[in-house]
């Protein structure tokens, strides 16, 4: 298998200070670099559709939430891992584009809910098939066995670090 950038960095550390144990970098460094590579590639694909990756993230989160197809800003924060301030900004920008609406919940006027507009729903339905085909293509170099093993390993790491689903 050919070397990658992390191999070079690890070798540089070994050459500079052979007493340092940088073995975790073989995993952490690759996950970090992989995250940046994937973010860039996915961003390029979303740009072909005229949106940013964060737009799809918010819209798809509402879309897949099931009926009635609306979430509070707090629920959106829990599902997307961004700050409350960032979410407010994102909701404002999506509302300006006519992709979501914001209203008070009929059963509790103190609660605000965000819902997809028809245009927002259509956008998710149009982009989703291409997006998930594109993601699948990014994994072409991995066999089905490697994919399954990677899923198990990444899940174990995430759960071990405390990343569990929000309560429903």
- Binned, the helix content reads 55-70%
Query: What's the helix count?
Result: 7
Q: Proportion of β residues?
A: 5-15%
Biggest sheet layout: 3 strands, antiparallel
Low-confidence stretches: none
Radius of gyration: 20 Å
**What would you call the structural class?**
mainly alpha
SSE pattern, N- to C-terminal: HHHEHHEEHH
For the biggest β-sheet, the strand order reads 1-3-2
What is the tally of beta strands?
Answer: 3
| Average pLDDT metric | 94
Distance between the termini: 44 Å
Global outline:
elongated
Please describe what this structure looks like.
- By secondary structure, the chain is mostly helical.
- 63% of the residues lie in helices and 10% in strands.
- The protein contains 7 helices and 3 strands, in the order αααβααββαα.
- Strands 1-3-2 form a 3-stranded antiparallel sheet.
- It is elongated and about 65 Å long.
- The mean pLDDT is 94.
State the gist of this model.
This protein is mainly alpha-helical and 168 residues long. The protein has helices at 5-16, 25-48, 53-63, 73-80, 84-96, 118-138, 144-160, and strands at residues 70-71, 100-105, 108-116. Strand 2 (100-105) and strand 3 (108-116) form a beta hairpin.
């Amino acid at each position: 298998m050919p070397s990658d950038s992390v191999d070079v960095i690890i070798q540089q550390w070994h050459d500079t200070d052979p007493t340092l144990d940088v073995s975790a970098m073989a995993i952490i460094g690759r996950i970090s670099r992989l995250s940046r590579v994937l973010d860039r590639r996915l961003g390029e694909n979303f740009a072909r559709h005229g949106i940013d990756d964060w737009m799809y993230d918010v819209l798809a989160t509402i879309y897949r939430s099931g009926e009635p197809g609306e979430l509070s800003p707090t629920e959106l924060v829990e599902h997307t891992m961004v700050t409350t301030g960032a979410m407010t900004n994102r909701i404002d920008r999506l509302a300006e584009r006519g992709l979501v609406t914001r209203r008070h919940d009929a059963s509790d006027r103190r609660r605000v809910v965000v819902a997809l507009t028809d245009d927002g729903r259509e956008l998710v339905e149009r982009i989703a098939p291409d997006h998930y085909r594109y993601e699948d293509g990014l994994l072409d170099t991995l066999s089905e066995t490697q994919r399954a093993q990677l899923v198990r390993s990444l899940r174990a790491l995430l759960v071990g670090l405390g990343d569990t689903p929000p309560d429903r």
